[in-house]
Amino acid sequence: MLRPIEFSTYHGGAREDGLIDFSASLNPYPPEWVNEMFERAEEISNRYPYYEKLEEGLSGLVGEEVTVTAGITEALYLIGILALNGRKVIIPRHTYGEYERVARIFRGKVVKGPNEPEILAELVERNSVVFFCNPNNPDGRFYRVKELKPLFNAIEDEKALLILDEAFIDFVQKPESPSGESVVKLRTFTKSYGLPGVRVGYVIGFPEAFKSVRMPWSIGSAGVAFLEFLLEDGFEHLRKTMPLIWSEKGRVERALDVRSDANFFIKRVGNAEKAVEALKREGLLVRSCESFGLPEYIRFSVRKPEENEKLIRALLGLESP
Length: 321
Known about the structure:
Layout: E1 20-21, H1 34-43, H2 52-62, E2 66-69, H3 71-84, E3 88-92, H4 98-105, E4 109-113, H5 117-120, E5 129-133, H6 145-157, E6 161-165, E7 183-188, E8 201-204, H7 207-213, H8 220-233, H9 236-256, E9 264-268, H10 272-280, E10 284-285, E11 287-288, E12 297-301, H11 305-319
């Protein structure tokens, strides 16, 4: 018999209409070519989506050989196939819940540790696997290469493997991204292009291994069309929209006394579930951080100015007596 694995996680993103969605941390500005992209997707939907040439083009654009996947989620499951079975899997205590879920599915031996790289490094053993989100979800903290060095040193000394999830790195001003023979980097376009329904991401590191186990045609015609337009765009959309997000991010930080290196924040509200429901009555959707082990906090993203203003007023109203 097939039995379900009893482990659940919660992801952001609106499940009902009529709410301004701050729960998913996405670029609020869609690409100018998004309608043309979906027209192209419809045009090629009657054929199998081979994308090897586009993958080569993306490698040239990124500057490193990449493996295209259906977002970071597919990459995590490929890591499960390749590396997790029976191995010690080290995961920070307050981070993205899918790491633990995948580790347990693939029979990894999960060990939780602090989020600080220097202390997390003390848990690294021979052939273990470490998941690290940078910037971290949900608090948005970005760790510079110098701060990560103790963890890198432990990984190299113990011949372990570091899975570096850089899903939100495009939102960081002046980002740094380390590299090494024992490092796998995961990135996605879901967040930075604001298109969560188009499942396209990529892996940097071990290309032969990842290509050997990925599912054929995983990104579909919409993903192929996205890659076509992305290569033509050459990341110009990011150069146009990130300064808009950074400007609004600064305004939200000043208004609500919060800090983050990414495009989202956490804020202590006492009872997160009550705060979520109160804000929903205002037409605003934020995310409870209970699944991250932080039940007194909510997480919310940076959106357009008029939307951010509504959230600022609502959150300040929650603080009022």
